[in-house]
Specification:
The structure holds three protein chains of three kinds. Chain A is α+β, with helices and mostly antiparallel strands. In chain A, 27% of the residues lie in helices and 12% in strands. Chain A starts with a helix and ends with a helix. Chain C has eight helices and ten strands. In chain C, strands 1-2-3-4-7-8-9-10 form an eight-stranded antiparallel beta sheet. In chain C, strands 5-6 form a two-stranded antiparallel ribbon. Classes of the chains: A alpha+beta, B alpha/beta, C alpha+beta. Strand 6 of chain A pairs parallel with strand 5 of chain C.
Chain lengths: 161, 463, 254
Amino acid sequence: MRTNKKRVSTLFGAISVGFASALALHGPLGPSSTHRAISSPTTTAPPRAGSPGTATTTTTTSPVASSPVSGTALGRVENYGYGQFAVQVSVTNSHIVGLSVKSLQTLESYSQQLEQQVVPILKNEVLQAQGTRISAVSGATYTSEAYAYSVQSALDQLHFK
Amino acid sequence: MEASIFYPKGPVSRERTRRPGAGSRAHRAPSHVNFWATFIVGGLGFGFVLGLPFIDGTFSEYHLSGGLAMFLGSFTGMAGTYLALIMVVLASRVPALERVLGQNGVIHWHRRLAPWPIVLITAHALLLTLAYAEVAKTGVLHEAGVIINTYPQMLTATVALGIMVGIGLISIRQIRVRIPRENWWLIHLLMYAALILAFAHEIVLGPSFVKHPVTQVSWIIAWSLAGACVLTYRVGVPIYRSRRHQLRVFDVQSEGPDVVSVILEGRQLDRLAVSGGQFFEWRFLTRGMWWQAHPFSLSALPLPPYLRLTVQGVGDFTKALAKVKKGTAVAIEGPYGSFTAFAAQRTRVLIIAGGVGVTAARSLLEDLPLKSRPVVVLRVRSEAESILAKEVEELVRIRKGNFHQLIGSRSDVALDSIVRLVPDMAARDVFISGSESFVRDCVAMAEEVGVPPHALHQEAYSI
Amino acid sequence: MIAYTEEVMGTVVSFLVDTEDLSDDQVARAIQRACEELHRLDNRFSTWKPESELSRHRAGDGGTPSELMKEVIGLCETARDLTKGFFDPWSLEGGFDPTGLVKGWAAERALGILREEGVTAALVNAGGDVCVLPGQGYTVGIQHPLVREAFCAVVNTNSSVATSGVYERGDHLTHPFGGHVAAISATVVGGSLAMGDAWATALAVAGKEVLYLLEGTEGIEGFFINSSGAMFSTSGMAGITVDLAERLTGPTLP
């Protein structure tokens, strides 16, 4: 059976059109996002000095409840080996300018298992900001000694007031 | 209306005979629109399916650990499974394709396409196992065990893969020739089971399908349609036609050494839409023969209530056919074949028939218009083996054409004598029927003379 | 709202009790009773106390187990089955050690006592394992395993949140089948806290395989974070996760 040129070219044409249509539908047929990413800052106030670009580690050892949010602006945090990622939180005078949290990885697509970095949600801001009522913190078990430095203790102190 | 050549011998009343009229369904041309529509839709679907892995998220992560393997695994899975769907559609002999490509064409492409789905799907399984193992940072074998045992529907999918690979292996030529043909065919039917078993895991795990009801539903619809094609055209329609026409063996007549014509009697044969040159798959419902279906061309257009096929006794089945009892019921599948007058685009026609190939040529002739002046060349090894020659000659004469008979062995009669007999061959539609080697040689000769590919039509008999 | 903390079971248990419909005294008494129960359970199940029933059981000291011990053993068996063996308190060094599950189970018993006393909404956090009497539902932040001052997620719950991890004390989790542990932190939300403890442990140990089992379990969601900082979660997590940005753009704080 000899290959018919007309059929071959029609076939390639149809395949290309089909392929292109699939690509065009990347919106509705794209990976189903489970989280609405918030990317726009709510004000246009510039981030403070110490801004995105500087690597900052955020470990402190003092009990946190006593230190109010004081406008620590954070740029990048940690390098997890997949490249640096930005904590898209810009804080100016305790006012959250913008927050972007990456979508949680879900099991729904095994192919999506590969990469989602966890953006730390800075608890300072979260605890003190109005509108969020976090009642407790779940974490790996802390000893009685470690409790003093835990966020739970900060919360408890907040509630004691 | 010309007098029909085909008279059943024996007491038959003339009033029962009736020729199909010009407007009957028997003479409906194959729809090229249907063919192109099916063809194009198939191509669109393939392209679409190939695009899905680029947008479902797997592609964007190819640079990550395991990402490339994940993407390729996804891609090969989609491509391979879609090709499997095409294989099913081809196997169904859906008329939109079969009427233009012929059953031989459909089977040819089915065979040619066959290794691809199997290879792609095997690659898909291996690549994804590799990818998951990389992500989970475990060994490949361990991860394979995890996938098979814990992921949904993967156990059945693995069984399906095993069936597919098995069928692929026994289809390798060196192995296939060692297996009896019927056995091979029965085993390869298990592919349906494999496709059914694997279906669930596609919908439930495929990145393009999970949480995308539209693609899921479309995939289900596509496969349902393919399945429906098979059930309709391989099971439903043959049963319907066989029951409608109620064919029974009426007579068996000798046409020559080892050659018999089997005359069948049936009902509503004027409604049987068949063109000259076509064939059916015949199933003689008697002990020892009912479980095989064999293709034989009609050696004449239906002359209601009679049908005729002419068969050369070369094997067990065909030899048994010569002794089949009158009244035996016959089931049919078909008609199949694109070796018809509709395939001719030019005004002039050349028919070359070798040996048993004269049967298709004989019925094809009946469909050629009266003023068509066809040239017919019959090639036979000896005078005695010349079957139906008188009928052919008469049909050619009525159409004011030229009839030639070349008698002698292959070495005595060179094919280029045909070239000399038909000097304007390159301007004709050329129909060639006969054994595979005969057809091959004639096609080569015709191409050399300059007959363009679209004017060449062939019906090869495997003997 | 009354908050109270009690040191018991080697950790600190925090209570947060809604005082609606009850007098402060009644609430105080309820909390007191709950704490007494916690101490009783600590005495029975502590591996640090050689005279506890569990220590004697581990030492091979015969004797029929108490009803409570049987209940714990039964829960452990169920948990082992559900997690396909990835939570296996029998495979730990030193013998059968249900401590991980007991903490949550005890917290739930304490919560039950509060309910008996008429409390309608309360939260008990036993060293990081949280269970609640829903009331209006509670919001719980989950400690980020790598960044001390941060959460990795904030969820709404009306049942329980259990987290298992290696980061706090340098504890190591053991993998019952001998592989390496998959996660530095794993959290399970929903269902009973005792089971949540078991699931979280199994999830931290086995990662994806247990995540898959969780995906097929109704009413329970979970996630784990591996050592590279990537998070993998069940598909229902998004539904219970708090979308913070919507809440955080509030007025400037003083």
